[in-house]
Design goal:
The chain is of the alpha+beta class. Helices cover 39% and strands 33% of the residues.
């Protein structure tokens, strides 16, 4: 009995000393933390975007403070990050058009008019990606005071698109009232 108790204590101590494991979804890995603008963010949740029967991408949402409420995440101040790992080959144009459709479904005409120049800038940036292969990682980060920063496999693409408000509006693609995938929304909010 003493040896069992010792083994239990030792295994508990070892488990506590090990770093938390990254989450893996469909082969895409999401670390428990991610750095944006010298801020350490936590993985809030991750899941898969499915269109019809096809897995399109795996996505993970990183925030300063975990929250299971979409409005709470969107209104949270500070850096944020969305990591997207493609699960199939796409063109930048296909990816951009799908994002813009999701953006339009979650915003009024007045909001669309307000964001149009920045939406057009994002569309142009994403179209410049050309062919995007399965396994490519796209980070869409909010750098406070600077705006949306897009990285493809760790390399920044284009210039930052101004405005924390634009980034928060962009999050509604996944977290809005009409998300691109309701199961993905649930997963990004920490649900299973």
């Amino acid at each position: 009995m003493k040896s069992f108790a010792r083994a239990l204590i030792l295994s508990t101590a070892l488990a506590a000393a090990l770093p938390a494991m990254a989450l893996e979804i469909k082969g895409a890995k999401f670390g428990d933390t991610y750095q944006v603008a010298n801020q350490s963010l936590q993985l809030n949740g991750a899941g898969v975007r499915v269109k019809m029967v096809f897995d399109v991408y795996a996505a993970g949402l990183y925030v300063t403070k975990k929250d299971s409420n979409a409005a709470g995440i969107i209104s949270q101040s500070g850096a944020k990050g969305m990591q997207i790992v493609l699960l199939r080959n796409l063109t930048g144009e296909e990816f951009a058009e799908a994002m813009i459709a999701g953006f339009e479904k979650n915003h009024s005409d007045a909001e669309m008019a307000k964001f149009k120049p920045r939406v057009d800038e994002l569309l142009s940036l994403m179209k410049s990606f050309g062919s995007v292969k399965k396994g490519t990682t796209i980070h869409m980060n909010l750098v406070p005071g600077s705006g949306l920063r897009v990285l493809v496999d760790g390399t920044q693409k284009g210039r930052d698109i101004a405005g924390d408000d634009f980034y928060n509006a962009l999050l509604k693609i996944w977290l809005g009232n009409s998300p691109v995938d309701s199961d993905l929304k649930k997963a990004l909010l920490g649900g299973k």
